[in-house]
Amino acid sequence: MAQACGCDGSCGASRRAGWQIGLGVASALAAELAEWLGTAEALPALLATAAIAIAGRAVLWQGMRALTRLQPNIYLLMTLASVGAIALGKWGEAAVVVTLYALAELLEQRAAERSERSLRAALQLAPPQATVQTPDGAWQTVPVEQIRIGQRIRVKPGERIPLDGAVVAGASSVDQSPITGESAPIEKSVGDTVYAGALNLHGSLDVVVNATADATVVAQIARIAAQAQARRAQVERLIDRFARTYTPLMLGLATGVAVLPPLVMGGAWGEWLYRGLVLLVLGCPCALVISTPVTLLSALAGLARRGVVVKGAAVLEQAARLRAFAFDKTGTLTYGCLQVESIRCLDTKPLARPLEIALSLAMHSEHPVAQAIRDHCLQQGATARPVESFETTPGLGVAGVVDGRTFRMGNHRFVEAHNACSKPLETLLEQLEQQGLTPVVLFDHQPRVVFALRDAVRADAAPAIAQLHALGLHTALLTGDTPAVADAVAHATGVQTHYAELLPHQKAQALEALRQQFGCVGMAGDGVNDAPALAVADVGVSFAERGTDLALETADVALMRHDLTLVPTLIRTARRATRLITQNIAFVLSVRALFIALALMGQATLWMAILADMGVTLLVIANGWRAAAPIYSTD
Predict the structure, then answer these.
(1) pLDDT tens for residues 44-103?
(2) 109/194 same-domain check
(3) Which run of H or E residues covers position 95?
């Protein structure tokens, strides 16, 4: 049964603990009622002892350990309060203090577990088995760990897709909202990519696997989320440090209140000891300690369900402080599907020869520009030639030896760097750039061909930029492209500042300049050349759907689908989580201050103290869970 529920037995243990604590609280309340009714002292003592034995023994055990180690903590406070109440003959209150604290602790534990389960459920979706085609053409069900790249699997209607791959037969609607956060099912047919964990709705799909079980998009993001648990937010660490100081201070205050008035002013020992016991209960920092992690985990789980996976609470805290955000151009603000719009041949030889050389060089690069040139050359019927050596210059271009001659292919600056830019070529390149086109030149000792490429701006870019402006962020575009192209994209999207002709290390320098001017800065990019900038940014954002492994590893946030409006969603959620944490801290401290004042005046009882502590804890947990709710640009 434990395996069926997926909790490894923890659900049953939690239920048993709940029954024990419930029985203990009932016994404690019965002891209090017996005292109130004036029954013989033996009955309240018996009921209270039973309550403590059933539900409070773990608390007392932890309290005694803390005492022997001289390490004051929450358990020691509860233990001293309970023992003190028994010394005063208040058996019912002693049992109520311990059992209600045990109940509050159980509720806190379940609150934290609920948030963690939500985060895990958003990411652990892929089934453990798959139906795979064997070499003899038969189909058999095997564990996904045994399936290798290139094998063919079949996904029936109603099944979850077990591995990433490309559809090779069939058509269906696929619900990939748990992975990408898309609200509507997506139609999938031959050639389309599908992701592990997505739900196949009505048609049968045959898929050729392109990632092993440990390399799927969901598996990579799940590892990121697991690592995130170790990254604690600064506010969470501050709360822990505060609690470590607050507990001994309250212990000292309670001791002073219990001892000094009788010694100095001749007060009644019983009365002041009772007030000291109330202060001990109020010294419990449970609400402070639990409110922050519950809020942060809820925010992380809510974002994961919408396709935004954050590498830890510390990143979420940084996102709330962002004041500027920069974007790469190709593949980020644009679709990254560059197309060759025109070719200008500057060679006296037929165009076929330069196209073959361009194809030869483009075949060795995965850059979007190279892919566009490769696709165009293949469409023109060009055939690649062997490349004897190959070299890439990030942000500029590529070079290789073809038929014993060194050819280069790259942007305007690459041509100038090799002194191959003549006056007519300069004029041609400037004209193309002013049209918003990206020119790429193939040359050896002189230019041979100029490719003019165009990349459309993403439909979601302008709305995302507008939302960032509404949040008070400054936006910037960082690109290795020309100033004219950068200006055209910035104008189309509404980006406020643009930096052009940047090499990878210069993008990182531009981010430093933005940080100096505006403060905390974020960056979104998906290429290898964006990795240095993503590492420098306070919050780096990459795209799991098409980002490179290096960019995804370097980034702090992975977007499961390429939707730029998820960037402002991240920032709004982070800011709301920060507000909720501030609200919780202020509320807890205010209530504490009120009840401490009442305790000093003798107007607070142990009942009131423990119920106040428990009630405040439940309220801050409920408030923290609000961080998981969707938040929109109009909120």
Answers:
(1) 778 878 877 887 777 778 777 877 877 666 677 677 767 766 776 777 777 777 777 677
(2) no
(3) helix 91-121
Tell me how crowded residue 62 is: count the other CB atoms within 10 A of its CB: 16
User: Is residue 499, in this structure, part of any structural domain at all?
Assistant: no
Percent of the chain at pLDDT > 70 equals 80
- Of 521, 98, 53, 111, residue with least CA distance to 281: 98
Quick one: tokens of 322? 């962002």
> How many alpha carbons lie under 13 Å from residue 83 in its C-beta half-sphere?
12
b (16+ CB within 10 A) / e for 408-432:
bbbbbbbbeebebbeeebeebbeeb
Q: Which residue has the tokens 């509720």?
A: 107
pLDDT tens digit sequence for 414-441: 998 898 888 889 899 988 888 878 899 9
**Contact in structure between 251 and 84 (CB atoms under 8 Å):** no
Taking phi first (over 0 means left), then psi (-120 to 50 degrees means alpha), and beta for anything else, what does residue 500 get?
beta
Q: What angle do CA 256, 260, 264 make, to 5 degrees?
A: 160
CA–CA separation, 494 and 355 (whole Å): 37
- Provide the sign of the torsion angle of the four alpha carbons 615, 621, 626, 627, taken in this order: positive
Q: Is 569 inside a domain boundary?
A: no
Percent of the chain's residues with pLDDT above 90: 23
331: confidence class by pLDDT, cuts 50, 70, 90: confident
Residues 460, 563 contacting (CB under 8 angstroms): yes
Rg for the chain, CA atoms, rounded: 33
Residue recorded with tokens 């470590």: 244
pLDDT on residue 325: 97
CATH of the domain at 422: 3.40.1110.10
pLDDT in tens, 283-305: 666 666 667 777 887 888 788 77
**Residues 116, 45 within the same domain:** yes
Which residues, other chains included, contact 601 with Cβ-Cβ below 8 Å and sequence gap of 6+? Answer: none
Active site residues: 328
For 436, left (φ over 0), alpha (ψ -120 to 50), or beta? left
Domain termination residue (choose one: 454, 475, 494): 454
* Tokens (6 digits) for 490: 């910035």
Confidence category of residue 10, pLDDT binned at 50, 70, 90: very low
Same domain, 371 and 243: no
Residues 238, 104, single domain; the answer is yes
Q: Is residue 465 part of a domain?
A: no
> How many other C-beta atoms lie within 10 A of the C-beta of residue 277?
30
Whether residue 152 is found in the same domain as residue 249: no
Q: Which of 159, 29, 138 is nearest to 94 (CA)?
A: 29
